[in-house]
Design goal:
The complex is a heterodimer of chains A (148) and B (196). Chain A is of the alpha/beta class. Chain A has helices spanning 6-15, 36-45, 105-116, and strands at 2-3, 21-24, 28-31, 53-61, 66-74, 79-87, 94-96, 119-121. The longest helix of chain A is centred in the last third of the chain and has 12 residues, at 105-116. Chain A starts with a strand and ends in a 27-residue tail after the last strand. Chain B has a three-stranded parallel sheet. In chain B, strand 2 (133-137), helix 6 (138-143) and strand 3 (165-167) form a beta-alpha-beta unit. In chain B, helix 4 (75-83) packs across helix 7. The chains are: A alpha/beta (148), B mainly alpha (196).
Chain lengths: 148, 196
């Protein structure tokens, strides 16, 4: 599995006039949340990349933002790549859903909503998955306080 | 004693005959005739025991503890070890694990219990027929163990069901589980039908 470099991808995205890149790193791209769906569709549908598999989505709770990490894999080219989004709204974090692009995002987005409280707009079934309805707070946030 | 082949007897002849009959009967019947049902006494003395109701009930209960299948986490592997031939809980009449709680009378809490699972476990316990006992197996069963303080874990099964025996360890070895079962058997033997 070859991990693609961020600068290579950014160059190809720029050549195809896809906007939304905020920061180019050695092995990942930080992109604007509004252009996530456009870049995701481009990376999936372009035969040169063919990222047909979303390996996982992770959320990181930083003091100033929530960072979402999308790990993409192309089985045909045996390549992987990482997209990152920074959501600076700590009170009501909201990110566009990619369920209709990669169906495997369904349960992972629900888990992130359940444990970290990030809402995915456009998700067909945005509700808790591990915890029960009525649970107060989001336990994987750093400011979560448990009763015990 | 031959019959006399005559048709007319004198008085003395009949008296002599009667005397012979009596003497003969007296000679043959010196010993008492034994009771034809005497074998029953012997059988009863061999097969019938007398005991108190408590001791019989407790004996029946503690020698056939059937565990319900409710093992949420890793302590279940130690229970499987205890159930396998090396440790062999069938010595205690326990080898039958009941998939239906209605046929079981012992719940071994082998593992961590989450709040989301707790209603189902409580329902299992309520479905078990009386009398029933609970062994809290392992640190998680006692107070949540290493997961105590988690947002999702019940801090001890005694928040959900009444616990009879606490068995520490993470996980306890099968010998520990056998010891807990022995303690439970002692507890059952002390129980009584009388209201305390």
């Amino acid at each position: 599995m070859v991990s693609l470099s961020g600068s290579d991808i950014a160059a190809i995205l720029g050549k195809n006039s896809v906007a939304g890149i905020i920061q180019v790193n050695r092995d990942n791209l930080v992109i604007d949340s509004q252009s996530l769906r456009g870049i995701a569709s481009f990376l999936k549908d372009t035969p040169e990349f063919d990222f047909d598999y979303l390996s996982h989505i992770t959320v990181i709770d930083y003091p100033v933002s929530f960072e979402l990490v999308y790990q993409l894999i192309s089985f045909r080219h045996c390549q992987s790549f990482i997209l990152k989004i920074r959501c600076r709204d700590k009170e009501t974090p909201s990110i566009p859903s990619v369920v209709d692009i990669w169906q495997g995002a369904d349960l992972q987005e629900r888990e992130i909503f359940d444990l970290a409280g990030v809402v995915f707009e456009g998700h067909p079934n945005m509700k808790r998955i591990l915890l029960w309805e009525g649970f107060e707070g989001y336990p994987l946030r750093k400011d979560f306080k448990n009763d015990d | 004693m031959e019959m006399m082949d005559k048709y007319i007897y004198s008085d003395i002849e009949l008296d002599i005959y009667e005397g012979k009959v009596i003497e003969s009967l007296k000679k043959q019947n010196q010993q008492a005739i034994s009771d034809p049902d005497e074998w029953l006494d012997e059988d009863i003395s061999r097969n019938v025991l007398l005991a108190t109701v408590d001791s019989v009930l407790n004996w029946a209960r503690c020698t056939a503890l059937w565990p319900v299948i409710c093992f949420p986490a890793c302590c279940a592997f130690e229970f499987m070890g205890a159930a396998s031939p090396r440790f062999d809980i069938s010595r205690f009449g326990m080898e039958i694990l009941r998939a239906s709680p209605r046929q079981a009378d012992l719940m071994i809490t082998a593992g961590t219990l989450t709040w989301k699972m707790a209603p189902q476990v409580q329902r299992l316990y309520k479905q078990m027929a009386e009398p029933k006992w609970v062994i809290a197996m392992g640190a998680c069963g006692i107070n949540g163990g290493v997961f105590k303080g988690s947002y999702a874990v019940v801090p001890g099964w005694n928040k959900i069901v009444p616990v009879d025996i606490y068995l520490p360890g993470c996980p306890p070895r099968p010998e520990g589980l056998l010891y807990a079962i022995e303690m439970l058997r002692k507890k059952i033997k002390k129980s009584s039908l009388k209201r305390q």
